[in-house]
Amino acid sequence: MTDAILVLNGGSSSLKFAVFEGCDELPPLLRGNVASLGQHPRLRVEAAAGWLEIDRSLGGGPIDIGEAFAAVASVLADRDLLNRIGRVGHRIVHGGRDFTEATRLDARAIEALRLLEPLAPIHQRINLEIVALAADLLPQAIQVGCFDTAFHSARPELAKIYGLPRAMTEAGLVSYGFHGLSYSHIVSKLRDRYGAGAGGRAIVAHLGSGASLCAMNAGISVATTMGFSTLDGLVMSTRCGALDPGIVLHLLQDKKLSTDELGVLLYEQSGLLGVSGISGDMQTLIGSGDPAAAQAVDLFIYRVGREIGSLAAALGGLDTLVFTAGIGENAPSIRERIGAAARWLAVSIDHDRNLKARK
To answer: Which of 26, 57, 121, 214 has the largest count of CB atoms under 10 Å?
Structure first.
């Protein structure tokens, strides 16, 4: 009986998974994650259906996504779920212009998505590797892709194009936006609370290892801080965020960095890690007494506050501010400081409730 649905969400530092019973209400059967793949990886599985909670180390690390998937597969096998899974839903970071809704991942779709790897070089490869691993483990299951870029596809054309020659725009050098599955989930929660208006003019702050903001009106994406790639916008854990293109030219022409060296610098050695010289982990930086750590946190707050102002301008005001993802859900001091930076927009953070609002 293949009545269960497996959902896999592979990121740059984690693999989240859940299994749902395939009926109208989609009750969860299993939920967990493999976190911190780069250092001290851990497997965590919530207690469910008579099974005990799991929280155990997977070694000193690092481990790759294949090893993380093997840990997930072992959990599924232990709970006799492998033969029950008939469909697998995958988070795919980049859908380009063509993939704007959930799509069955047949050979043709996979080939098209591989062509987008240069636009999301870290995530797209990981996402498609997980698809291949799941297809091998579960040959009976239908593989379905859901795309982070799809949520932003309805933005106004002016929010998508750059000041580049038209031929380049028509060739796909446009802003796509990312974290769309997270934003879509938040919209559903806003509609549950506020009805069809979804909180009116809302800015959602997806603050994690990768970070972005999205301005939405009645649940529809209007503008977002990530653009052509996942490098754009906010300062992130190890990614630089928005950068003067002249710096890239300088690094290539004058500093003679290769394109590979430049990619490593911008994706893996910059952001909070680069500024602090200590860590890309926000909790580590908050707990550090090093002035460089404090400066990295200050820069993160400054850039979020500045981008909130930009997105509020695109919306013509602000009714609702939402925090989500690892930092947004688990760092009260960051929420409070961002709220203070947006006080001019009448944002008010309840100090006591904020301290209690941990994931």
So the answer is: 214
Answer whether 140's CB lies under 8 Å from 2's CB: yes
- Return all residues near 288 (Cβ < 8 A) that are at least 6 apart: 276, 278, 279, 294
Contacts of 56 (CB under 8 A, 6+ apart): 42, 43
Q: Which residue in this structure is represented by tokens 């020659």?
A: 165
* Alpha carbon 325 to its chain's center: 8
Cα 106 versus chain centre, distance: 24
Q: Is 24:41 a contact under the CB 8 Å cutoff?
A: no
Q: Average pLDDT for consecutive 10-residue bins of the chain (359 residues)?
A: 86 87 79 87 84 86 90 92 94 92 95 90 90 95 95 95 96 93 95 94 95 97 95 96 97 96 95 96 94 98 98 97 94 96 93 80
Q: Is the dihedral of CA 216, 91, 172, 271 positive or negative?
A: positive
List, as one string, the DSSP characters of 321-349.
EEEEHHHHHH-HHHHHHHHHHTGGGT---
Q: Pick the catalytic residue: 148, 281, 298, 352?
A: 148
List, in order, residues 6 or more apart from 261 with CB less than 8 Å away: none
**In what order do the strands lie in the sheet containing 211-217?**
220-224, 211-217, 201-207, 320-324
Instruction: Give catalytic status of residue 148 as yes or no.
Output: yes
- Helix residue ranges, H only, 199-342: 245-253, 259-268, 271-276, 282-286, 291-315, 325-330, 332-341
- Structure tokens given for 30: 């299993």
* Domains, the chain, with CATH or none: 4-147 (3.30.420.40), 180-356 (3.30.420.40)
Find out whether 314 and 220 touch, Cβ atoms under 8 Å.
Answer: no
* Tokens linked to 133: 């691993």
Helix ranges restricted to H, 138-172? 166-170
CA distance 271 to 109: 33
